[in-house]
Amino acid sequence: MLRSSTIQLLRFHFSFFLLPVYLFAVSQVPVIHAGHAVLIFFILHLLVYPSSNGYNSYMDRDETPIGGIKNPKQPTRELFYVSMMMDAVAIILSLFISYWFTICIITYIAASRAYSYRGIRLKKHPVAGYLTVILFQGAVTYFMVYHGSSIDKTLTVPPLDMVAASLLIGGFYPLTQIYQHEADKKDGVITISALLGYRGTFVFVALVYTLAMSLLAVSFFAHNEQKKFIVLATMMLPILVYFFSWAGLVWKDTGNANFANTMRMNILASICTNLAFLTLLIWRGFE
């Protein structure tokens, strides 16, 4: 039986926030290998992502709120061993997809460790840490999901979509850090959000998100799928409403850049984005 702290710090629920890239990639695959698509979902969302969360918590030993957890428990050595075991299982299962997929998984895990490991600690560098997150949670994940879910295991993955996936992650990630400036500073970590400041974070996120949606528009319009883009953009409108409302509150009082508001933003953004890409995936069945 695993300790309650281990289960909590693996943060399985956090995988929901990363689901949009998976759904986006699968929805664009010409011919889907259903069995492999399901296996990839399991590998990423029930093994790799939770393992990364656990390892990060083991290194950080947070005493203040972290993604999705208001009162994190202190990790034990068990968490370290469990995260290592989950990674091993993920790599073994990846071999059933393809060698390229396995290489991507190993690279993703290595980058995740380099991000958190105190001997390297990419997360303490605002730009390097930010680029590592958006590259691997965005473009690399899109590539391996698209490749692994395709019936022919194609390596010809739409580059514009890969960039858009990274920018979608990049347009939300700084907001997940906005309430942690002081806690991160005490740990010697300077996040991209801390570097930009409270107002700067909102401005930066708005610009990156706009660029992401612009690239998606170019991609969908290039394939004569204007209706799909309009549906996608419409389903994401609640995100913009909350974003600008929250930005207005923070502009008046930076105290509003808190854990509760951040979680509301994350949950709303995840629900809308997941539903949008899930709709595109279902749409395919009627074409």
TrEMBL record:
MF terms in GO: transferase activity, transferring alkyl or aryl (other than methyl) groups
Pfam annotation, one family: UbiA
Any single GO CC term annotated in Swiss-Prot or TrEMBL for this entry: membrane
Keyword Transmembrane: yes
Cell location: Membrane
Matching InterPro entries: UbiA_prenyltransferase
Superkingdom classification of source: Bacteria
TM ranges: 21-49, 88-115, 127-145, 202-222, 229-251, 263-283
Positions in coiled-coil regions: none
Keyword annotations of the record: Membrane, Transferase, Transmembrane, Transmembrane helix
Bilayer topology term: Multi-pass membrane protein
Protein's name according to its UniProt entry: Prenyltransferase
